[in-house]
Design a protein that fits this description.
Glyas_Fos-R_dOase_dom, Glyoxalase, alpha/beta, Glyas_Bleomycin-R_OHBP_Dase, 7 strands, 14% helix
């Protein structure tokens, strides 16, 4: 895939370690080659899921992300919705807008919807 035209979210986080662990559970990771040397600042993290999904995490400006008032949201198109739902003890459902999905919040209460088009699901009519 050529990176030309790709759009990647840069998500501010209050706790980069907690956020990285959360997104690891959704299949996003950063390679060891992207980790800074010991003692170097680790304030920007580039994660990918190996399937074309990318997410960058950065330190939020102190006091910027307030619990219950986070305006950010992400939508992860993921064919294995059921497996991700089990990881987070959620129950996905078919929505009127044609998606099979569930919603969770990350450590900073960013809304994260995980879904796949209902007609594309295995066994869909």
């Amino acid at each position: 895939m050529s990176p030309s035209g790709a759009l990647i979210a840069i998500l501010p986080c209050n706790d980069l370690d907690a956020s990285e662990r959360f997104y690891n559970r959704l299949g996003f990771a950063r390679p060891d080659s992207e980790r800074p040397a010991p003692g170097e600042p680790d304030t920007y993290r580039m994660l990918s899921n190996g399937k074309g999904g990318y997410l960058h995490l950065t330190d939020a400006v102190e006091g910027w992300l307030t619990p219950g008032r986070n305006p950010f949201g992400l939508y992860l198109y993921l064919e294995s919705v059921d497996a991700a739902a089990r990881e987070f003890q959620q129950s996905p459902e078919d929505k009127p807008w044609g998606m099979y999905e569930f919603a969770i919040s990350d450590p900073d209460e960013t809304l994260v919807r995980v879904g796949w088009p209902t007609p594309l699901r295995a066994g869909a009519q």
